[in-house]
Amino acid sequence: MKIHEFAVEQWMNEHEETCRYNLAETCVRSLTTGELLDLSGRRVEVLAELDATPLTYGPIPGSPRLRALVADLYSTQGPDNVLITHGAIGANALVHSTLVESGDHVVAVVPTYQQHYSIPAGLGARVNHLQLREENGWLPDLDELDRLVTTDTKLIAVNNPNNPTGALIDEAGLARIAKIADRVGAWVLCDEVYRGVDQTGDGFTTSIADLYERGISTGSMSKPFSLAGLRLGWIVGPTGLLQAVATHRDYTTISVGRVDDLLACVALENKDAILARSHQITRTNLAVLDAWVNSRDDISYVKPASGTTALLRYDAPIGSYEFCTRLLRQTGVLFTPGAAFDIEHTLRIGFADDTQTLRTGLRLTGQFLDQLATV
Questions:
Q1: Which residue of 107, 114, 246, 334 has the lowest C-beta tally within 10 Å?
Q2: pLDDT at position 2, please?
Q3: Quick check: 186 and 128 in contact, CB under 8 A?
Q4: Bond into 161 cis (ω within 30)
Q5: Residues 102-132: pLDDT tens digits?
Q6: How high is the pLDDT of residue 374?
Q7: Could you tell me the pTM of the whole model?
Q8: What is the pLDDT at residue 242?
Q9: HEC profile for the chain?
Q10: CA-based angle 29:31:34, to the nearest 5?
Q11: pLDDT for position 149
C-alpha cells in the first residue's frame, strides 16, 4: 500500500513541541490528571480504582462500562454498537480498511482530515472529492454530492463539524446525505471527533449513526473532552459492521490501555462538567478571534459554527508554508498552513487553547501582517 505523506501531521510533528504560541492546537485546552480528578469530585475513589487496576490486557472491544457511556452520547445506540479504538485516527483507519477495496468508489469532502481521501486512494479506490467552497459557508453542495454518487459508490466520507473550517452540517443536511447514500446502498462515515462544542445550545449536533442504518460515527476523548493523551476513540455503528472491523482490529491492536479506559470512564461519567468547561473556552475564544478578524482588512473567514478550528484567508503575496515558517521564526507563533489542506493563502487556527496565548498570538500575527504590507 502506497500512501501520500500526511501533510498536517508532518507539519505538527516538526513544530508543535518547539513553538512559543501554539495556535495550531486543535484540542480544547487539555486537562491534567489532577484537574480531571477534581472535576469528578471523586478523587479518593478514582485513585483507589486506579490503584486496584491490573496492568494487563483489557476487554478487547473496550470495557462494558466505557461502551455504555459512549453509547449515551447518541440517541439510538447501545453498548453493542460501540467499539473502542486507539483514538479517532485509529477508528477512521479501521473503517476505511474494513469497507474499502481496490476498485471501489469513494466520495470524500475536502478539505477534511487527510485520512478520508488518502487511505481509500492508497487502498486502490477511485476517490472523488466533493470540494467545499468558501462562498457556500464551507458546507457541502448536496446536489453535487448526488451527482457524484453512482451505483458503485461504496462509501461517502464527511467530517462534522468540519476540520479545518468549523462548518457544521445540520440535521436536515445529514438526513439528505443519508438519503443520497441509501439510493445506492452506500455507507456514510462521519468523522465526528469535534462533536460536542457547537457554539449554541448543548453543543451536540445529531450524529449520522442515529440517522442512517449504514451511518458510522467516529469520535474520541481528544477534542471536546480535552484528553488527547489518553489516545482513546470509538466507532459507533451497526453491530455487523463492528464485527467486521474487529477482524481487522485483531491485526493492529489488542485492547486500549486499562488506565486509559478507566480515565475515559471517569471523564464521561462527568461529561457535563467537562463540556461546560469546553463550551466556556470555545465560546470565549471564538469571540476573541472574531473581534480580531473583524478589526483587520487583510484577514477574512467564515465564522465557525462548531469545533475548535477556523480557516483564515489572508491578503499577503506569499504562500502559506512560507507565511507560517517566517511567522514562527520571527514570533514563535504556530499556525497550520492552508496548503496542507490544498487551499492556498489560508491558515488553520486552533482557537480552543489558553485564552491569553490566543490573544498574544493574534497580536503578534497582526504585527507580522503589518510588516508584510510595508515590504
A1: 246
A2: 85
A3: no
A4: yes
A5: 999 999 999 999 999 999 999 999 999 999 9
A6: 86
A7: 0.96
A8: 98
A9: CCCCCCHHHHHHHHHCCCCCEECCCCCCCCCCHHHHHHHHCCHHHHHHHHHCCCCCCCCCCCCHHHHHHHHCCCCCCCHHHEEEECHHHHHHHHHHHHHCCCCCEEEEEECCCCHHHHHHHHCCCEEEEEECCHHHCCCCCHHHHHHHCCCCEEEEEEECCCCCCCCCCCHHHHHHHHHHHHHHCCEEEEECCCCCCCCCCCCCCCCHHHCCCCEEEEEECCCCCCCHHHCCEEEECCHHHHHHHHHHHCCCCCCCCHHHHHHHHHHHHCHHHHHHHHHHHHHHHHHHHHHHHHCCCCEECCCCCCCCEEEEEECCCCCHHHHHHHHHHHHCEECEEHHHHCCCCEEEEECCCCHHHHHHHHHHHHHHHHHHHHC
A10: 155
A11: 98
pLDDT digits (tens, 9 = 90+) for 275-307: 999 999 999 999 999 999 999 999 999 999 999
